[in-house]
Amino acid sequence: MLLAQDVLNINPSASFSNLNNITFQSFISIAISFVLIVTAVILFFVIIGGGLAVILSGGNQQNQQKGQSAITAGVIGLLIVFGAWAIMTLLQSFFGINLLTFNIP
User: Fold this and answer.
1) Dihedral pair phi/psi, residue 9, rounded to 5°
2) If 0-12 CB within 10 Å is exposed, 13-18 middle and 19+ buried, where does residue 50 land?
3) What is the pLDDT of residue 19?
4) What parts of the chain have a pLDDT lower than 50?
5) If you ran DSSP here, which 8-state letter would residue 98 be given?
6) Which parts of the chain span the membrane according to its record (predicted)?
7) How far apart (Å, rounded) are the C-alpha atoms in residues 65 and 28?
8) Of 39, 58, 72, 82, which sits with the fewest C-beta atoms within 10 Å of its C-beta?
9) How far is Cα 105 from Cα 97, in angstroms, rounded to an integer?
10) Which letter does DSSP use for residue 20 in this model?
């Protein structure tokens, strides 16, 4: 009798074999990368939303001010995120500390 896993060459243990290789260092590096990327994407949408609020304010000063403050906050947030990335890159260049792979010599 032929089983479905024999026909499809499915090896359940091979699918999760990389889970044994997860270490604290790899978890930290994945978390740092994930936080930077998600934060940048969210702030990008904050800037887009602020721009739409300014465009759709219809001359209402209060709505226009809210949109402008959202754009300002989004730009400042992006500067902070990219500043953190730049600091991590400088640490890697000068001291050999790579936080994205959590490799501290």
Assistant:
1) 55, 45
2) buried
3) 63
4) 5
5) B
6) 27-58, 70-95
7) 39
8) 58
9) 7
10) G
Question: Residue ranges per domain, the chain?
Answer: 24-95
Exposure of 85 in the CB half-sphere (CA atoms within 13 A): 13
- Distance set, CA 44 to CA 61, 77, 80, 86 (Å): 23, 9, 13, 18
| 41 alpha-carbon distance from chain centroid | 7
Radius of gyration of the chain (CA): 23
Contact, 29 vs 100, CB < 8 A? yes
Tell me the one-letter amino acid at 90.
Answer: L
Phi and psi at residue 19, in whole multiples of 5°? -70, -25
* 98 HSE (CA, 13 A, CB side): 7
CB atoms within 10 A of CB 59: 6
